[in-house]
Amino acid sequence: MRPVANSGPVRLRLEISYDGTDFSGWAMQPARRTVAGDLTGALQILLRHPVRLVVAGRTDAGVHAVGQVAHVDVDPAALSALAPRRPATGRPDEPHRDPPAALAGLLRRLAGVLAPDVRVRDVQVAPDGFDARFSALRRHYRYRIGTAGWGVEPADRRFVLARSRSLDVEAMSLAAAALPGLRDFAAFCRPREGATTVRELQGLTVTRSGDEVRVDVVADAFCHSMVRALVGSLLTVGELRAPVSRPRSLLDARLRSSEIHVVPAHGLTLLAVDYPPDDELAARAQQARSRRID
Predict the structure, then answer these.
(1) pLDDT tens, 7-46?
(2) In the CATH hierarchy, which fold is given to the domain comprising 10-134?
(3) Cβ(267)–Cβ(234) under 8 Å?
(4) Helices H, strands E: what count in the chain?
(5) 60 is a catalytic site residue
(6) Alpha helix (H) residue ranges in the chain
(7) pTM for the full model?
(8) Catalytic residue among 19, 60, 131, 211
(9) Closest CA to 179 of 201, 198, 199
(10) Cβ-contact 212, 147 below 8 angstroms
């Protein structure tokens, strides 16, 4: 790990998990509890200066994460002050100021300040050129659907949609196979003024594990409600309420349709974010900024 600089801010990479049930999404909102709000507040308490979090993917209200990534620029002196104190020659109260000790101190203190439904799992000094949002190559999401007639396990109720009916996974898979590519996903996105709806859907697969059906979605980025709208369109196929060709025909129409049902948020989890090698991070960020800013 690179040493923490003596002057100028140091950029940290944070790996984050959260149960999204009681959050109004990632982005900070007045008078609402959000993941960014909780994390920003905790960091500012510990570092004693304002911070701004940049996240790989802003999740909607109720969506969970086990592999979220964010970055934050911090004052190196404030970071060093969080290193645990231990005896040193002639200075028994002198703090250890090496980067690993400071990062470990921050991580441990975050665990004590944050609520149990959000955890920072790792903190590292970010490589040069790293941007949590724009350096990312792809995001991985999974939507879980329970099909047992008795519902889902109580321990899973916050993370699995109980459908309590059989699904034709083969038909869903055939429908999903027609959707990946660099396309305009306007039919599956809630419109935002000035924002593009062009995305590169890199993978869309449907699998069954016992009574659970899983839809795994991979893309360079997602627009608002895109994953849940895609899953909703596949569900109508799996329940034999629409032909296999329907999701692709809706995509080609490029118009938001009442035929597209957006499934509830609680079945969706951000699994991971992929980044290029360290020496390609800055170039990737520049490429992403020039292609799409939304």
Answers:
(1) 689 999 999 999 999 999 999 999 999 999 999 999 999 9
(2) Alpha-Beta Plaits (3.30.70)
(3) no
(4) 7, 10
(5) yes
(6) 35-47, 76-80, 99-113, 169-177, 226-238, 246-253, 281-291
(7) 0.90
(8) 60
(9) 201
(10) yes
